[in-house]
Amino acid sequence: MQKDQSESLYRDDNLYLWTAPALDWSGDPLAGGQAQVRKYVSIVEMINAVDVETAGDDARDIWVLSTEFYDGNGVTFNEKEGKAPLSQPVNYSEWDYQPQLERHLWVTVYEKHQRMGNPAAVNMFSERQKPLVQRLRKLIEAVQPQGVVCTRKVEDGDEIDINAAIFAMTDIRMSRQSDLRISISIRTQRNIRDLSVMLLMDLSESTNDLLSTRSEGDVGVLQLAREATALLAEALERIGDPYMLCGFDSNGRHDVEFCKFKDFDTSYDDKVKGRLADMTGQISTCMGATLRHAGHLLDQHPSQKTLITFADRW
User: Fold this and answer.
1) What structural domains does the chain harbor?
2) Mean pLDDT lowest among 19-28, 211-220, 238-247
3) How many angstroms separate the CA atoms of 204 and 284, rounded?
C-alpha cells in the first residue's frame, strides 16, 4: 500500500524532503484541552440548570446570561460574585537544565484582564514630574532606529536569495535562459522611525517590599515600577512610538498570568492609568514563559523591537 504522506515527522532520503502536517494540540491535555464553549441562555434556563460547584476556570461549557441579573439592592451578581473571563491557554516548551532535556508544552500562560482603579494618583504623579518626562522624551528621540530596506533581483548584493538561486539553477539544467540576479541588497534609512517598545513589570509578591529611597519615607518596589512605567509611557506617547504595557506573575507553571494594561493599538487614557493604579503584587515569578509570550506578541509587529523589564530580582 502506498501512502502520499510520511508517518514520521521528518525524513530525508537525499531525494526529497518530507514534512508531516502541523500537529493539532487542541485535544492534548497539556495544551489546555478543548476550547471553551460560551452559551448565552435566558434567566429561566440559568435558574433551572444544575450548578456544578467543583467546576473551575477550565470547564468546557460556560453559561452566560444574555442580560444582567440584579439582586434586591440593584447590584448585579456579576459585580458581586463574578470573575473576569480567562483567555485561551498558550503553551510553551521549556528547557530543563537538570536532566538536560526539553519539556514539551511545559508552561501555560493566560492573558489576564486587570481591574480598573482610580487614575487620579497616576495623573498627579505625571503632572509633578513633567520636567522629567520632557528629559525622557528627548533621550528617546535621540535614539534613531534605522529602517531596513531590502531590494531583490540585484547582481551584486549583500546576501544570496535562495529562491532566486534555485530558479536560476533549474533554468540552467533545463537549458533555458536564466536570471542571474540572485542577490539581495540590504541598506538602512535613518529617516524611517521603526520602533516598538514593550514594558514588562514584575507583579510578584516580592514587589510589595519597602525600600528606603525617598526623603518622605519608605516606598514599595511596586510603586516605583508604577511610577517609572507612567513616566516612560508619557514620553513615548508624546513621541508617537507604538508601545505596550504589561505585567506578569505566576502560580506555578500551569498558571502564568500575563496582564495587559495597554496594547499597541490603544491610547494612553484614564482606563490604562486606572489599571496601572490598581495593579498589585502577588504569588511568584515565572520569567521564562513570560519572556517567550512577550516575544510572541512583539513578533506580530514588523519593526525593531525593544523589551524593557522592571523586576526586583531574577
Assistant:
1) 23-83 (no CATH), 110-144+193-310 (3.40.50), 147-189 (no CATH)
2) 19-28
3) 5
